[in-house]
Design brief:
By secondary structure, the chain is α/β, with parallel strands linked by helices. Helix content is 34%, strand content 22%. The strands form three sheets. The protein has a six-stranded mixed sheet, with helices on both faces. The longest helix is centred in the middle third of the chain and has 20 residues. The protein is globular and about 45 Å long.
């Protein structure tokens, strides 16, 4: 069994999202709490800007829930940068007990899974989960500095600039995190670092099948099944792979990286990616639509490509991971 069913499902009591200018021009712009006018936000570097974005998202999520820092038992956060410097430097400012995570773009659901386990197990009353990413900081770490002016492959995705934060509580009226399915590493030998969708899709399929087998649910039991950042290519691969395994996702399944940008008019090629992709779409669009009653049960499955530039340049393939959480208006 890879899936935990929570006996005392934690409630999501508040969220907050911040996005960059490009994301603020996309189809989901009305769901984000704060849209920046520029992606430096008054800072000296892209890395410092990303840390400010994550810090403000966390502070604002607490404010939305009428909470102070000392009301929170644990901060669980992560990002894409080496040594998760965004999250560590953010935690330095907040004085909240801190667990730093690295799951690449799967970090939001990894944080929600572990946060829910802490609350359900009685080890915490309130936990805040957060992730962030920044197009420019990710580009110069994983690919090329912007000044280089490299041409992007059509299979490449656009790292979302932004952050999302979720407060989980032992008390509250929902929606609730009712299940968490922990993924396994799946590596099908993809070595193309500009095609993350293909590298991560097999991991998404593996976790989805495990989730359905463990819970007894089927795609029909969900109003929405949404992956984190497979993009256009990865989404298509997952639909095809799941169809071969007897699961029809065609009417319920989409991807945060597909939804956040208008890829044709915004020139994002295969769609969005990055830790903030799932974080902003979940804490913005999905959470607000659940509160409105548009969705009663959602399966969020964020995927991550667990590689680095060094190991990729040495010819290694790209391991994939996917973690899933069920968000339900009822405790189940």
């Amino acid at each position: 069994m890879q899936t935990v069913k929570f006996q005392n499902p934690p409630s999501i009591v508040s969220t907050y999202t911040i996005v960059g200018p490009k994301e603020g021009e996309g189809p989901l712009k009305d769901y984000f709490d704060l849209i920046l006018e520029d992606d430096m936000w008054g800072q000296e570097s892209f890395e410092k800007a990303e840390s400010k974005i994550q810090e403000e998202a966390i502070k604002s999520a607490l404010s939305n829930g009428n909470l102070a820092n000392n009301d929170i038992d644990y901060l669980i956060s992560g990002d894409l940068l080496n040594q998760i410097i965004t999250s560590s430097y953010t935690a330095r400012q907040l004085s909240i007990p801190f667990y730093g995570l690295y799951g690449a773009c799967s970090t939001m659901t990894e944080a929600l899974s572990l946060g829910a386990m802490l609350v359900d197990g009685g080890f915490a009353k309130k936990v805040i989960c957060a992730t962030s990413s920044h197009f420019s900081s990710a580009e110069r770490q994983f690919r090329f500095p912007l000044e280089y002016g490299s041409q992007r492959n059509f299979s490449s995705q656009w790292t979302v600039t932004g952050a999302g934060a979720t407060v989980l509580s032992a008390d509250g009226n929902g929606p609730y995190v009712t299940y968490a399915t922990t993924g396994k590493i799946v590596d099908m030998g993809i070595k193309d670092a500009t095609n993350m969708g293909a590298a991560m899709a097999p991991a998404a399929m593996d976790t989805l099948i495990s989730h359905f087998n463990d819970t007894g649910y089927s795609p029909a039991d969900y109003d929405l099944i949404i992956s984190g950042d497979l993009g256009i290519i990865g989404k298509s691969i997952v639909i095809d792979l799941m169809q071969k395994e007897g699961f029809d996702l065609s009417e319920k399944f989409t991807d945060c990286g597909v939804e956040i940008f208008d890829h044709k008019n915004q020139d994002t090629h295969a769609g969005g990616s990055g830790c903030a992709c799932a974080a902003t779409v979940f804490n913005g669009y999905i959470y607000k639509e659940v509160l409105k009653g548009s969705f009663s049960r959602v399966l969020l499955i964020a995927t991550g490509a667990l590689h680095s530039t060094t190991i990729n340049q040495q010819g290694e393939s790209i391991p994939g991971i996917a973690h899933a959480v069920t968000i339900d208006i009822n405790k189940g």
